[in-house]
Write a structure and sequence with these properties.
Blueprint lengths: L4 H21 L12 H8 L6 E5 L9 E9 L8 E8 L1 H10 L3 E9 L4 E4 L4 E5 L9 E10 L10 E12 L4 E13 L4
Antiparallel strand pairs: 1-2, 2-7, 3-6, 3-8, 4-7, 5-6, 8-9
């Protein structure tokens, strides 16, 4: 069977039509990818533990009671911590207990010790804290969050108020940072 010039043209052009979009997607002179600054990458790969501890003053809080969570930041570095951002939000389990099981609680106080802290982040619906800084090497600073379980709150086995916290801080004059999530144990809500 003899190919006509029309069929030859289609066979010659078809691969170019199919490869054209693929070639067009690749830039002719691709710029080299910019790497993250070395100090940022080094801080991320170091997998440093978060120097934040949390303690609740009550393991159980019946409806109508209050409990206080103390959050402490300790500087483990040999340079001052210059900046800290932290939020404290309810866990998914607590949010489902609030939405579906009738658990009710509210934040009633945010008190910085020894330095005043700014608490509250109404845009995200979470408490946040900006610690008094700079924080010298080896030094610690704390603040407290107080919550009250409503008198008409649901209670019983499996209902609890727990939180998680996102923490970001910078040290070495801002040249290094660490961040991550940490759990914040709150309280169980038994029926007296």
């Amino acid at each position: 069977m003899r190919l006509t010039s029309w069929k030859r043209a289609v066979r010659a052009v078809l691969p170019l039509l199919l490869a054209g979009p693929l070639l067009a997607a690749v830039p002719a002179h691709a710029a080299p990818a910019q790497a993250a600054p070395a100090h940022r990458a080094a801080a991320r790969t170091a997998d440093l533990p978060l120097p934040v501890t949390t303690v609740s003053d009550r393991a159980t809080t019946p409806p109508g009671g209050s409990f206080t969570v103390t959050v402490t930041l300790t500087n483990p570095h040999d340079t001052p911590i210059r900046f800290v951002y932290q939020t404290v939000q309810q866990t998914y389990d607590t949010s489902t207990d609030v939405a579906y099981a009738g658990l009710k609680y509210t934040a009633t106080a945010c008190n910085g010790v020894p330095n005043p802290t700014v608490c509250g982040n109404p845009q995200s619906g979470a408490f946040g804290a900006l610690f008094g800084l700079p924080l010298a090497p080896g030094a610690s600073t704390s603040y407290t969050l107080t919550y009250t379980v409503a008198p008409d709150s649901a209670c019983g086995s499996g209902l609890n108020v727990d939180f998680y916290s996102y923490v970001y801080y910078e040290y070495q004059g801002g040249a290094a940072f660490n961040d991550g999530l940490t759990g914040v144990r709150g309280t169980d809500v038994p029926c007296s």
